[in-house]
């Protein structure tokens, strides 16, 4: 399971994100970007962050470490902004924390070219999880110590917002024309050959086991958190086998 820590100080909001994540200190002396259950799409966004972030890590991508972050709403009492106070008050309990990468810079494709091999791996992974938020407008990539890191997977697996249509939604192609790395001739064929066989039932069971029960409770149509975990795994398993053939909008590298 993800390590659990407790927030001890709310430092500042991070205004780059539409859901107003924040920077906090925790009782393990770490500094984390906190993503709130009370923001935006709520706990489903956090579920997507855990499933896709932990899957990325197991497939060999660089991802900041994720933790569950317990928050006492009293931390917001001294905040001058009403929006921040409201967010903290509505997010008591278990939230998501991501290691803060001090000194990391937002990705700029003009300053940091990427090989077709690395571009292919990232494009293939984003196609697998149907990431609609890694475009040139908003790459959701960081450069830290000369290496590329993946962040922010809340806008993925859009099928989990409408479970009755999950099969049709998960079967759709992935348009990579505006992907942040499309210009680097991504070699998705090589990426699929490497990564697709590694996306197994056992791996997905391990990944979905990281989701806190509290974020899976009371989902319509599911009796238990484990039943919902299996529902998250099924479309990813099916998609891994075929998604390389359904990526459009790029000229693939050789």
From TrEMBL:
Domain of life: Bacteria
InterPro entries from the UniProt entry: HipA_2
Name of this chain's protein: HipA-like kinase domain-containing protein
Limits of the HipA-like kinase domain: 13-240
